[in-house]
Sequence to fold (294 residues):
Amino acid sequence: MEDGYGLLDQSQAEEPGDEWEEIDVSDTEADQIARKRDREFNEFRKRIKDADQFKVAESVFDEATFAALYRLVQGGIIDAFGGPVSTGKEANVYTARAGKHAQEELETDDTEIAVKIYRISASDFTDMRDYLVGDPRFEELGDKKRIVLAWTRKEFANLKRARKAGVRVPQPLAVERNVLAMEFIGKGTSRAKRLDEVNVENPQTAYEVVREYIRRLYDAGLVHGDLSEYNLLFHRGQIVVIDVGQAVTIHHPNAEEFLKRDCENIASFFSRQGYSVTGNELVSYLREHADPYP
Fold:
């Protein structure tokens, strides 16, 4: 790893704003398409289902998920699918070739984007509820479908807010139902390495970058909630924060508990890398230097 880590210039970041974006989890056009399938949608669905890379993950793709992908193709976000990048308890991530609109948004020659698909049948959706209830952007949620749809839109909103605050996260492109399209952090179709997978040559500098990102998130009214070396990537000389779906606002009843846990995780990792720091020291730094808006 390089010594600089490319901390983003916060003066170039947009102000996060004072109001939280309302997040709608009502039926989308994708649900409507799924209920009333047309010939083009059926052909699209068949192409995806017959692709070798999707046969092992067919349980991820219900009818409305196919329709959500179909909408992203129609909207110029996705041109063609690649293969799986990662699988998790709640979601699978795939590469895709960027459509025209996605390339314009990214302003890059990179042709790959990431497509994250949350399972409506996620077995631990109760854990999702713990991060959603108490967030001022959401009302009390009901069934499993609404929880997963809310989670997907929440990650999209959190990515936008983090970028405005000057935190290096994947650029969000579009969200349709339980499908999130965003910048792919990697080279070709290979994802960037996590911090636990690289040799951290200058742990103090890397720690200070991560500490600054936690502060910027907090200033923007967010706590990551699950920050560790496993969701920090190293890419093109920068540390990139990923997996912000569970991030909560500072007004969430568990925000302080989540913040302390994030600080403990980060301090523990960098201590193992040779830079001595404690979670309490990181929390104290944030208390002194962070200035979250009300």
Q: What stands out?
A: The radius of gyration is 19 Å. The mean pLDDT is 84. The first strand starts at residue 78 and ends at 87.
